[in-house]
Specification:
The complex is a heterodimer of chains A (407) and B (140). Chain A is α/β, with parallel strands linked by helices and 407 residues long. Chain A is built from 14 helices and 17 strands. The longest helix of chain B is centred in the C-terminal third of the chain and has 19 residues. Classes of the chains: A alpha/beta (407), B alpha+beta (140).
Chain lengths: 407, 140
């Protein structure tokens, strides 16, 4: 992408012109949430101003229109993930809810005492805790794939871990702390050789790299809207049709039923079986709008540009004395975690904030990973396609100043 | 000096600086000069865990006077710990309980004591008052 294109993109994101303490905002916290382009915010406004009515089963015009928009959004998401079956797309509140859904519904149907679930050491808490809760409920064991010093998963250990008691493997596609792009296709292949299904947490992947669930052969793939320029509160669970049919509903309520009587209730078909209650039908259309925005630029172009940013920032950061980059995997995307000498991440983050630079510090909801590295946390910069090399220069200069103050 | 006199002194000290960088430099100095907490007090009971940084707090009472010692792994947090100790240490339980801390706000470091910062400072302040309440209960 050239400078003009980046400038055009930046103009689509009003928040990027905000001043923070009278300084130009530099937003390097995209791993936590991304900013929203005008078209997405306008879509929300349009929805509430012009097509707002509760969806499905409404006889009136607006309800029809809103329903169509919600279902069209589902098709766009399906297309984005590479499936032609839109009923394989379930709208959730986000990645967390999607994982909890599978941990509950799959766990109820297929797991029993003594079984095992496999996660990796670098998982976000949202891909640890739901499985721990399942393991506690069913007296099962959680197995953890270790990583090497560079921040890459130990595939041999993983392979040795798989056995007939392994009921599900759940790993992240891209690490929110280390930036590692995990070899999920291989992970899935190995699990499938044992007839074990795999859930991929794609929260940090879909905004940055091309994802095709059919090519990956993922059984479940989940992500959050807000990390891909869409609003908060909307997310996606992709599941293979046969799995989604095989597992019981997660929540009961309206919309997810076929017939209800006090004797016996039957459940609706996919995808409605998993969408109890009024879904976020405005959020879903805004998510579709965000995906259109991304597709319009082109995910490969985005991946390429963000990779350049990451490589440039890595190079510049490495010139700072005492710099220690946490996570040096061969395959990395959009995230750099680091420490400088023994300076606490909080101190660096607080002072960078004063200079208008938004970074994240701490354990990034991956406490087991941070503990395994024996560090107090990291400072994390995470990029989006609206960031620039010029911003990286300002950030690196600011960081040097901050490090001097704290040394 | 009364607690409020100490607070006013700190406000005056910080008011010399207009620039946030100088204020933070002073805070860093304060953090660096805080007497390290004796290792024997760095116990699990004394640790106050925030999401971002860890704070240790120890309190003792002699002749009705409460003294605090504390430390943190983050230097800015340590600076604030140093200020809180400067203000509250060396007073009676009643004085500590009845104090309204206004200096943090006045010196422009309020953001560090915001509950959403999760740096352990809010819990530390609460804990300091809890110690005072506990010691007061002990006296009575």
């Amino acid at each position: 992408m050239n400078e003009q294109q980046i400038n055009d993109i930046r103009n689509d994101f009003p928040i990027l012109s905000e001043k923070i303490y009278n300084k130009d905002l530099i937003y390097f916290d995209n791993g936590a949430t991304t900013q929203k382009p005008r078209s997405v915010v306008e879509k929300i406004e349009q929805g509430y101003y012009h097509t707002n009515a509760n969806i499905h089963r409404g006889v009136h015009f607006l309800s029809q229109k809103a329903t169509e928009a919600h279902e069209e959004a589902r098709s766009i998401v399906a297309n984005f993930l590479g499936t032609d079956k839109k009923e394989e797309i379930i709208f959730t509140r986000g990645t967390t809810e999607a994982i909890n859904l599978i941990a509950f519904s799959y766990g109820e149907a297929y797991c029993s005492e003594g079984d095992e679930i496999v996660v990796s050491v670098m998982e976000h808490h949202s891909n640890i805790v739901p499985w721990q809760m399942l393991c506690e409920r069913k007296k099962m064991t959680l197995r953890v794939i270790p990583a090497n010093e560079a921040g890459e998963l130990d595939m041999t250990a993983y392979q040795n871990m798989l056995n007939e008691r392994t009921k599900l493997v759940s790993v992240m596609h891209v690490s929110n702390v280390l930036g590692t792009i995990n070899p999920v296709a291989d992970i899935i292949k190995l699990a499938h050789a044992q007839n074990t299904p795999v859930l991929i947490d794609g929260a940090q992947a879909v905004p940055h790299i091309a994802v095709n669930v059919k090519e990956l052969d993922a059984d479940f793939y989940v992500f959050s809207g807000h990390k891909i320029y869409a609003p908060t509160g909307i997310g996606v669970l992709y599941g293979k049709e046969n799995w989604l049919n095989a597992i019981p509903p997660y929540q009961g309520g309206g919309e997810m039923i076929s017939t209800v009587s006090f004797k016996k209730t039957t459940y609706n078909e996919l995808p409605f079986k998993f969408e109890a209650g009024t879904p976020d039908y405005i959020g879903s259309t805004a998510l579709a709008e965000a995906l259109k925005y991304v597709l319009n630029i082109g995910i490969d172009k985005i991946a390429d540009y963000e990779h350049q940013l990451m490589m440039y920032a890595t190079e510049e950061l490495n010139k700072i004395q005492g710099m220690r980059i946490i996570g040096n995997a061969q395959n990395k995307s959009s995230v750099i975690s680091f420490l400088v000498n023994d300076i606490h991440p909080y101190d660096i983050g607080m002072l960078l904030d004063k200079l208008g630079i938004a970074v994240r510090t701490g354990h990034h909801c991956a406490q087991p990973l941070i503990d395994s590295l024996g560090i107090p946390g990291t400072i994390r910069v995470s990029f989006a396609f609206y960031n620039t090399k010029a911003e990286i220069d300002v950030f690196v200069t600011a960081l040097k100043k901050v490090v001097t103050m704290l040394s | 000096m009364t607690i409020n006199e100490i607070q006013d002194n700190i406000i005056e000290e910080f008011s010399q600086f207009d620039d946030w960088m100088d204020k933070y430099a002073l805070l860093i100095d304060l953090g660096n000069s805080l007497e390290p907490l004796d290792e024997k007090h760095k116990t699990p009971q004394n640790i106050i865990t925030g999401c971002q940084s860890r704070v240790w707090l120890n309190a003792e009472m002699n002749d009705g006077i409460i003294t605090y010692q504390g430390e943190s792994d983050a230097i800015l947090v340590k600076g604030i710990v140093s200020l809180l100790i400067q203000v509250l240490s060396g007073h009676t339980a009643d004085e500590i309980i009845n104090t309204e801390l206004y200096f943090i706000d006045k010196i422009g470091l309020k953001e560090h004591l915001s509950p959403t910062r999760s740096n352990g400072l809010v819990s530390m302040l609460k804990q300091m008052k809890m110690y005072a309440l506990a010691y007061k209960a002990k006296i009575n």
